[in-house]
Amino acid sequence: MLSFEFGLCINCNQCLIFSVTTNADLTSLPEKHLVLLRDGRTLIGYLRSIDQFANLVLHQTVERIHVGKKYGDIPRGIFVVRGENVVLLGEIDLEKESDTPLQQVSIEEILEEQRVEQQAKQESEKLKVQALKERGLSIPRADTLDEY
Amino acid sequence: MYVFRDGEACVSRGGGSEPERGPRGASLAVGVSAPRTMFRYQSLEDCPLDEDAFQTLGEEDEDIDQFNDDTFGAGAIDDDWQEAHERLAELEDKPATARELEDGAVSDEMDLLGHHEENLAERLSKLVIENELEDPAIMQAVQTQPPMQQPGGLNSSIWDGSAVLRRIRGPLLTQEMPSVSVLEYAMPQRPLQGQEDERDLSERALPRRSSSPVIGSPPVRAVPIGTPPKQAAVPNFNQQILCPKPVHIRAPMQQRYPSPYGERMSPNQLCNVPNSSLLGHPFPPSVTPVFTHLQRAQLLGGAQAGRMSPSQFARVSGLVGSPLTSMNPKLLQGRVGQMMSPASGFRAFFGAPPPSAPPPSQQQQHPPCPGSHLQNLRPHPQMFRPDTTHLHPQHRRLLHQRQQQNRNQHRSLNGSAGDRAGHRSSQQEQLRKDPYANLMLQREKDWVSKIQMMQLQSTDPYLDDFYYQNYFQKLEKVSAAEEMHGDGPKKERTKLITPQVAKLEHAYKPVQFEGSLGKLTVSSVNNPRKMIDAVVTSRSEDDETKEKQVRDKRRQTLVTIEKTYSLLLDVEDYERRYLLSLEGERPALMEERKQKICDMYDNLRGKTPGQERPSDDHFVQIMCIRKGKRMVARILPFLSMEQAADILMATARNLPFLIKKDAQDEVLLCLLRPFSLVLYHLPSGTVTSLLQQLANLPQSVTAPAPANLHLAAVLQNKFGLSLLYLVLSRGEELQNSNAGTELMQDNQWTELMSMTTRELLRIPEAALAKPVSTPSNLLSLFSRYVDQQKLNVLETKLQLVQGIR
C-alpha cells in the first residue's frame, strides 16, 4: 500500500530530506504522505510544510484507524504536528494506494471496532498484571517507559 | 491630491517636488510606481521630505529593528489588517520594481517577500558557522545553484502575478472613473528611489505608518506577468491606464458570493470571490472614488474574510518572522492561476503586445505573456536540473518520471511552440488540482535540507554512525555479489552523500573579560568543573568477607573482559584503518595491531608474562561469563596458531566445568565455529593432546578408569559432543592424509580412540547429546578401532549413517 521513499536514516531528520526535495517539480501532483505519531495515530494528508524539527503541516488530513483488516478514515482538515511527536513520515505511492488487501469501512464502524479491540486489550492486560502481582512481580506501564 | 498614473501630478503639496521629480523621474522612467509613490509621499504625508531626508531615512534603516512588531508587523497597523495586507502587497512589489531598475541584477536571496526574506536569510546564514555552509555536500543538498538563480527571477514573476491580481482590482473598481485616483494610493506607497532600491524599502516605517485613505486596491501594474523587469513594462503601463479592459476579466467570471467559512473552497475559487464581489457591484459613477479604507475593507473583507483571513493574518503578523508566511504568496499564486483561466480575456487585458525589449539572457524563461507566469513556475527543462544525486534512487527516478510526464504533457498540449493557451491551460489544470503545491518555497526546502545535512556532518562516520555505515557496506557487498551473477544491479542502493568535514579542533577558551583579574568560574559542557572530590579508597584485605571476595573477583573478570573487548574492537577496525591510511603509516598500524593482539591474549590467559601459565583460572573465569565466551570466539581468529591451540586446550581441559556453568547461557556453541577453524590447522600431535584433554586422561597412559566422568560429561553436552566429533573428524582426516601414519603410530591416539569408543558405547542413547553436526568420516574412524558388531551399535546410536554410505 505504501512505498516508503526514504532509505535508512541516520537521524530521523534524514527522511525529511527526501520528502521535501521531491517537490522540486513545481507542477507535479501533490504527494500524499503518511505520518505515524507517537501516540499511534496514523495521519494521511498532503504535506505542505516542514521544518528542521520535523514540524509538519498537513493539508486535507485524514486520520486512518486500522483494526484488523479494516480501516476507516476520519477527515480532519489541516493538521499542524509538532515535530517531537512524529515517529515516521513517508510518501504514499498513489498508484499502489488502492492496491491493498485492507477493507475500508465507515467511521462509526471502525470506531466501534477500535473500542472493542481496546477493551479486549485492556482486559488481557488486567489479567496479566493480576497474575504477575500474585507472583510478586510488576511490570512498569508502557507509557512511563515511553521516554526512554 | 491626486496623481495620475503616469507620474504627472496635478496637485502636490510637498515642497520642491518638481525639481526632485526630474532626476528621479528620469532614472525611474522604468519604474512603474516610483515617481508616483514618491510623489504621494510628499503629497499625502504632508511633510516636505526632500531628497536628503529620504536618503537619511534609508541610512537609518539599518538601525531599525526589523522584527519590531510595532514598526513592521501587526502593531504597525492602526486599522484593519486587511489594509495592512494590501500594503504588504505593495511591499512585494518593491523587489519586482526594484529589479526593474537594477539592470537585472537579481540577488540570490531576493524573494517573494523581498528584502524581508533576504534579511532573514542573512540572519540565518549568520547563525550558521561559515565553514559548514561551504561544505560541498551541504551546498549540494541545497538547490540554489547558479542555474537556480532563476528562482529569484521566478519569484519576481510569481510576485508579479499577485501584484497583477491586486492591480486587476484597481481598474475593475475604477472602470467607471478612469480619471480618478482610485487606482493608486489604495495603499500608502513606499517611495521608490533609484539606487536606494538596493536596500529594503519595506524597512521604512514611516511610509507604512502613514495612513492615507485606502482607496480601492492598489494600482494595477501594467507589467504583464512574467515580463522581464525592465523598461518594457512602462509602455504597457501607459496603455493599460488609458484603456483598462477589465471587462475581459469580468466576463467569464462567475458571480459567486463568498461562501461560509466551513465550506471548502480552494484558493482558486477564492479569486473568483473577491473579483466577483467587486465586479458584481459595479460602482455607480456617482460614488465618490475615495472610499474610506473601512469601506474598502468591507468590500474586500466581506469577500475574503471567509477565505483569506488566516493566511493574510499570518502574513501580516509574521511577515518578518518565518518563511512560512510565504504561504500566502503561494495562495496568491494559486489565485493568479485561477485568474488566468479566462485565458483569452486575460490576454486581452494585457492586450498590448509583450514588451518588445528582448528579455536579457537571464530572463529567458520569462516569455512575456501572462500565461508564461505559470510556465515559469514549472521549471524550464533546460534550466532547472535539481541536484538529485543525494536522493534515494527510486525517489529520483520517480521525480524524473514526473518531470518527464509533465513535459510531455505540456508539449503535447502545446502542439506548436507558440500555443500558449493550451500550455497554460494544462498548467492551470495542474495548479487547480493542487493550488497549495509549493507552499514551501524551494528556498525553504533547501534551508531545511541544509540544516539536516549539517547535522549529518561528521569527522568520522564510522565513529558517529557505525551501524548505518556497516549496513550499507553489507548491502553493497550483496548487490555487488548479485551483480556478478546477474546482468546488472537489481536494485540501486545509494547512500545519502553525507558531508565530510575536516576535523576542526576548537580549542575551548573559557570566557574572559578584558581587564579582569583571573577567570570566571563558569562551568559548561565544554569546561566542566570538578564539583565533587571523589577519592578512591581501597579496602583492606582483612575486612573482606568471602562473598565480597567472590564478588570482587567477578568484577575483576568483568573489567578484564571489557578491556579486552575494547582491544578486540580496535583490532577488528584495523583493516579499515589500514585501507584509509597512508603508506607510511601502515607499518606503525601493523605494529599496533600486533601489540594489541598480544595484549588480548595476555588478558585472556591471565598476565604472567614470560612464565609458564600455571593456571587456567583466569581464563576459566572469563569463560564463565557469557560475554567472555563470545569474546573468545571473536578473538580466536586473530591469535596465532600456538595461542589458539592453547586456548583450545584450556577449554577442553575445563570443559565439564564450563559446561556446567554454561547450562543457562548455552553460549558455548558460538565457539564451535572458530574452534573448528583452528582445528583444521592443528598438527596431529596437538590433536592428540586435545583429545586427551577432552577425555581427561593424564599425560602418561595409565589404566583408564571404568567410567570417565569427564568424557561422559562432554558427551552429554551438545557443545562437548560436537567438539569431540570435530576432533575425531580431524584425527580421521589426518589419518587419511599423508601425515596420517604419524597418528597411527601414536599409541596415545589409539589409546584415546579406544577409550572414546568405549565411552560412546557405554553411554545410554538417551543421555547422548545431539551434536550440531555429525562428521561423515566418523564411521571410518571407528571402524579402525572397533569390530563390526560394535561398529553397528555405534552406527545406530550415533546415527552415523546418513543416507547411502
UniProtKB/TrEMBL annotation, chain A:
It is found in: Cytoplasm; Cytoplasm, P-body. The keyword Ribosomal protein does not apply. The keyword Mitochondrion does not apply. Coiled coil: none annotated. Keywords: Cytoplasm, mRNA processing, Ribonucleoprotein, RNA-binding. GO terms for biological process: deadenylation-dependent decapping of nuclear-transcribed mRNA; histone mRNA catabolic process; mRNA processing; negative regulation of neuron differentiation; neuron differentiation; RNA splicing; stem cell population maintenance. One of its GO terms (cellular component) is nucleus. CDD domains: LSm1. It comes from the Eukaryota. Residues 20-95 form the Sm domain. GO terms for molecular function: mRNA binding. Probably involved with other LSm subunits in the general process of degradation of mRNAs. LSm subunits form a heteromer with a donut shape. Belongs to the snRNP Sm proteins family. This is U6 snRNA-associated Sm-like protein LSm1. The lineage of its organism: Eukaryota, Metazoa, Chordata, Craniata, Vertebrata.
From TrEMBL, chain B:
GO terms for biological process: deadenylation-dependent decapping of nuclear-transcribed mRNA; P-body assembly. Residues 1-27, 189-221, 344-435 are annotated as: Disordered. Its main location: cytoplasm. Belongs to the PAT1 family. Keywords: Cytoplasm, Nucleus, Phosphoprotein, RNA-binding. It comes from Chrysemys picta bellii. The keyword Transcription regulation does not apply. Residues 352-361 have a biased composition (Pro residues). One of its GO terms (cellular component) is P-body. Pfam families: PAT1. Coiled coil: none annotated. It comes from the Eukaryota. This is Protein PAT1 homolog 1. The lineage of its organism: Eukaryota, Metazoa, Chordata, Craniata, Vertebrata. PANTHER family: PROTEIN PAT1 HOMOLOG 1, TOPOISOMERASE II-ASSOCIATED PROTEIN PAT1. One of its GO terms (molecular function) is RNA binding. The gene is OSBP.
